[in-house]
Amino acid sequence: MNILLLPILIPFIAGLLILTISSRARFIKELITLFATFTCVIISFSLFKKEAVFALPGIGFGIEFNLRLEHLSSFILSASTAISFLIALYCVSFLRSKPYAKQFYSYLLITLSFVSGAVLSDNLIFMLFFWEGLLLTLYGLIAIGSKDAYHTAIKAFVICAVTDLCMMLGIGLTGYLAGTLNISQISLDLSPLATTAFILLVIGAISKASSMPFHSWVPDAAVDAPLPFMAFLPAAIEKLLGIYFLSRICLDMFNLMPESSLSIMLMVIGGITIILAVMMALIQKDYKRLLSYHAISQVGYMILGIGTALPIGIVGGIFHMLNNAMYKCCLFLTGGSVEKQAGTTDLEKLGGLMRKMPITFGCFVIAAVSISGVPPFNGFFSKELIYDAALERGWAFYLVALLGSFFTAVSFLKLGHAAFLGKLRDEYRNVKESGWLMLAPMAVLALLCVIFGVFNAYPINNLIQPILGERAVGHSFSGFPTNFTLVLFTLIVLAAAIISHLIGVKATGSGVRAVNYIHYAPVLSKIYELAERKFFDPYEIGLKLLSALARILYAIDRLIDWVYEKLSINIVFGLSRQLRYWHNGDYTLYVAWSLGGMFLVIIFLMARG
Amino acid sequence: MTSVNPYLFFHIFIVTIMLFVMGFYCIFFTFNLVRALIGVELLIKAVTLLIITAGYVTGHMALAQAIVITLIVVEVVFIVVATGVVIGLHGHNGTLDTRKLRNLKG
Amino acid sequence: MQINYTLNLFILVILVAAGLWTVMTRSLIRSAIGLALTSVILTLLMFRFDSWLVTVFELSVCAGLISVIFISTISLTEPLTKSEVLKHMKARLARFIYLPLLILVVGVGLSFIKVNLNFQLPVAEIEADARKVLWNMRDLDLLGQVVIIMTGIFGVIVLFREMRRK
Amino acid sequence: MLSFFITTPLIVLMILNLPFRSLMKRIVFVVGLSLALIQAVLVALAIFGFWDIYSIPVSPMLRFNIGVDNLSLLLLLCNGMVVFITMLVSRSFIEEGEKRFNFTSLLLLSFAGVNGIALARDIFSLYVFIEVVSISSFILICFNKDRDAFEGAFKYIILSAIATIFMLTSIALIFLVSGDMSFEAVRAALDNSAHTSLVLMAIGLFLCGFFIKAGVVPFHGWLADAYTSASAPVSVYLAGVSTKAVGVYALIRIVVTVFGFDTPINKVLLFAGALSVVVGAIATLTQTDFKRMLAYSSISQIGYIVLALGIATPLGIAAAAFHFFNHAVFKSLLFVNAATLEIATGTREMDKLGGLAQRMPVTGVTSALACLSIAGVPPLAGFWSKLLIIIALWSSAHYNYALIAALASLLTLGYMLLLQRKVFFGSVGDHLARIKEGEWNLIICAIILAAVTVGVGVLFPFNLCKLIIR
């Protein structure tokens, strides 16, 4: 038994084991889950920064079961096992009274197994195998959430299946071009055909990271699926996996040049994802749904960073992925804490929970300032790296990133204000702080946010820089950013966010509604100018404009949904009904088809012969 | 017998095709189950003729005869089973009309 | 030689005529008899091709047994009365009137096509006895015949015997 | 040894027809069951190399012109397995006594016929055994003598007769060229004749005959009617092995061994296969009858096999053979589930069912496994064969067909989830409140087949594919 097989086999067997145990034996399941995930954590940390290769006899045709551990995969493996362990710990308390606890644990473990498999596989076909396996657990994890979760699960399944299909084709094409399916041996220049393969693979990767336009299931899942699922898959694991594969594609398998149009394509996708998702987030009135749009928006930064194809951008993107896994996971866990204790996540109803749940609030604040990019927390450093790279490739990208940052800050001010500050409603008088099992993972993640921020030199120099290999030689990315102009801009933006929030609160007297006005704060110069030139009341008109914009974005969002859900299905079902009509039960018609077919076949053969 | 006239084979080929047309026409345009089976029988006759001729033309008459004998056995069993089904249908429908056979569709 | 050839042609023509009658005639019984007639004419042709063993089979089984099966089926299923036949006649005629025309067109049209007949005929081997071929070379077919006859027996048991009980 | 595969069922049947009818009627079920099981086990052992199938000497009298290769072994294995399952299922549907005796005898005859198809090395013998299987299928379909069964059987008879005519015409034309019927002789003759129009016509007619028997679009009209109208165990048999043997196996055999691959033939196969895949998959979507839906899905899956055959590379043929085996397994499994449902609820209308997974856990789970396997979800068996098909298509530069195959597999997933949702998920209606799991024999069938699907899927990379490719 090779040690590389353990992170795949242990969770898988444990997951299957849990399915066989009666759903009444709760402690055994929790124990098994914790034990299995903890073992995986230990194994993956012991494998950390080591290199190993393991090959089983294959079946020929280039399909070989090769496992390969090297720097990047060991790093992703450690991160995903650690997060799985923390989520499992959290679930012990969170899922205590839930009927679906058994399935959840089991799917979680199987997911972990597939993730380990996908990260460790060196052969594209086997990676695809694990990758597709994740589809199943994704479906299962969403579907167990509630009675209506079925639709969301189907939606997620369909979207991911379509993109996985693209990836399958991409893998076929890559294998055809490179002559091998082993990732470590593939190194392609971007010929036209290779570009197609590249795009197909990128579609698979960014869809796994739920970037636009493949994101639309995430907000729905935020409402329907169990909350730990959100913290586990969309917030952390899928980002790790998707960005891992994206960086594999861009760094190892294809030689992506900074000047190429593909790089610009990636950056445009990143920019659009940042701005559109964050704008959607602004208008949300639900804790979890708001977070879920941020989960999408943050992917944009990573894609933007990697898409620049500059060493500094790639470092920033990967560092951001790591940071995002921490603070976004932490944020979702605080959401779960609120949901568990207060019984709702509706921001209109919540308020003033700061006194009742101080530790949760503290974790929330740390994670929120991290995601908003306040120094000296981790999000600040990764975002600065990305800004630097984006500015080098074009000021527009920088502007978009900065704008996204502004909206992020504004929406988190709104969220924090609405949930934790303000007036406490009467029905929440008796709310208490969560138990330590739920607080511990949050606290650990929040602590990590601080550590990775203050001591950012360690992760950047030791974890991320080696991934780039030769490209990063001679650069230094750690420490406080050297370009103070950029830092200044960032600080200005943050300050502006706070000011606009205060104005909004003053205007409306409520944290939730504060944001409605802040959209149109003067910092958004373009929109502001436009509004001022044409209209009297910049706030009111701007509100209408932006809400119209938001509505259009919403419509686009729905349109994408509609294409996925309705249009294709209607066409296919129409055809199906037509076929039913033609099978009218008359055997002479069938005889006629057969004779017609026979004539066609013979005429074709004779004409070709 | 020793010399084979290629034109004879050609004529037989034409006759076979004519029999095919008759058989298929019968299957298509009749409204009677038994007559549809008679159409099938005509088709089998045409094939029998073709095989025998092929044996005769190539000089493998023994093999052709062996094949046709097996074919006749198959044909008889086929017809017996088919008429059994027709009689069963008549028992259920009370008629031999093929237009009553549209219960299964879609 | 010429006489043989003409005779063969004549047999072919009456074969077509018999087939046509089988399809066109309006009485089912006559149709079955027409089938038997076609079989007999086919037997004539086989006889002219020196296939004596098959001739016996074709005469006894096809012309005899199958006609009996058909006729008994027709009598079992109470065919249409004469008045009904007359009623359907016109519609039948409208459907089947095109057949002779079609046959004529097919026959004449095909005889004008120049078919490439110079395919490689294998050397005619010395004629072996059909029975020997059947027993020695086609033994798997014989096994198949046994299976198929047993299938037929069970078919008769399933389809006919239980029916009579009902 | 090989001839025992055909002669043993015959001899057993003759012994069973001796006097002592009452005794024979009692043991016939067990005898049939064990015969099929023995064959399945023996062949499986032979496939995995535990013994050599030629090792037992036989007297020259029983040495027919037969031979075996891996493809034949696969069909022999499927045959033993599916006939075993069919007999077990029939226990719940065919009443004991005279009826079961006749049923089992017919099934054994058909069993011998399929073995004959697997072993035949001669196109006319192949035809004879195809007829054996077809005719016994006709009788089996109308075994219960209801109206629809007769109708389905009659449609099958007419279309099958036309297929027979096509094949016999083709045999006559080939006879004209080769003068002999054995595979090698025909192959040699066809190679020498340089594909004159006569030969091409013969090839086309033969292909069309098999297309009808297999139910490839547009030759498929009879298939859904026959499958739907037959009684439950017969549906299992028809879908599992009967039509597969007479149509698909014979097609693979003839194309690979006799005709050889040629660009026009490949194009015909690819096009017909792709058409079946798409039409079958689309037609399933609006079906309301459980079995009819499965029948159309069969058409779609047969399309995959034909498509894979049309690729004409060794990988393609291996994929076709592998999908052939998988299809026999999971489609019989689904029909077994259909049988369980029919006996438990008395209906096959999917709109009247729902939420049965709670009431019938084994049926629900095995059916879900089969559905996922058909849809090609890893790590089940169906995933591997579909993957191989798509890889084979892609690597031989049939990109458009690869795309069609991949999209259709998405559609497959869609309709299988639809079926699963309509029947097994959701809430239980009041009229289904007292439904219980099926009898033990049905459950055993379902579990065996599900185990095979999962087992083959998990062990595939190391065992089965190598064997098929070899």
Give an overview of the whole structure.
The complex is a heterotetramer of chains A (609), B (106), C (166) and D (470). Chain B is an all-alpha fold and 106 residues long. Chain B contains three helices and no strands. Chain C has helices spanning 2-24, 28-48, 52-76, 82-96, 98-112, 130-137, 139-165. Chain C is flat and about 55 Å long. The model of chain C has no long low-confidence stretch (mean pLDDT 80). Chain D has 470 residues and is mainly alpha-helical. Chain D has a domain at 278-470. In chain D, α3 (70-93) packs antiparallel against α4, α5 packs antiparallel against α6 and α13 runs antiparallel to α15 (361-375). The chains are: A mainly alpha (609), B mainly alpha (106), C mainly alpha (166), D mainly alpha (470). Chains in contact: A-B, A-D, B-C, B-D, C-D.
What's the overall average pLDDT of chain B, rounded? 86
Roughly what fraction of the amino acids of chain B lie in strands? under 5%
Q: Count helical runs of chain C.
A: 7
Strand-pairing-aware structural class of chain C:
mainly alpha
Uncertain segments of chain C: none
Total number of helices of chain B: 3
Give the C-level CATH assignment of chain B. Answer: Mainly Alpha
Our count of domains of chain B comes out at: 1
Strand content of chain C: under 5%
Distance between the termini of chain C: 61 Å
Put the structure in a nutshell.
The complex is a heterotetramer of chains A (609), B (106), C (166) and D (470). Chain A is an all-alpha fold and 609 residues long. Chain A has helices at residues 6-20, 26-46, 71-94, 101-120, 124-143, 149-178, 192-208, 217-224, 227-253, 261-282, 287-307, 311-342, 358-372, 378-393, 395-420, 436-454, 457-468, 484-508, 511-518, 525-534, 538-582, 587-608, and strands at 52-60, 63-69.
What's the topology here?
The complex is a heterotetramer of chains A (609), B (106), C (166) and D (470).
Chain B: H1 6-29, H2 33-58, H3 61-93
Helix pairs in contact in B: 1-2, 2-3
Chain C: H1 2-24, H2 28-48, H3 52-76, H4 82-96, H5 98-112, H6 130-137, H7 139-165
Helix pairs in contact in C: 1-2, 2-3, 6-7
Chain D: H1 4-16, H2 21-47, H3 70-93, H4 98-119, H5 123-141, H6 147-178, H7 183-193, H8 197-214, H9 221-229, H10 232-259, H11 263-284, H12 290-311, H13 314-345, H14 356-359, H15 361-375, H16 381-395, H17 399-423, H18 440-459, H19 464-469
Helix pairs in contact in D: 1-2, 1-4, 2-3, 2-4, 3-4, 3-10, 3-13, 4-5, 4-10, 5-6, 5-10, 6-7, 6-8, 6-9, 7-10, 8-10, 9-10, 9-12, 10-12, 10-13, 11-12, 11-17, 12-13, 12-16, 12-17, 13-15, 13-16, 13-18, 15-17, 15-18, 16-17, 16-18
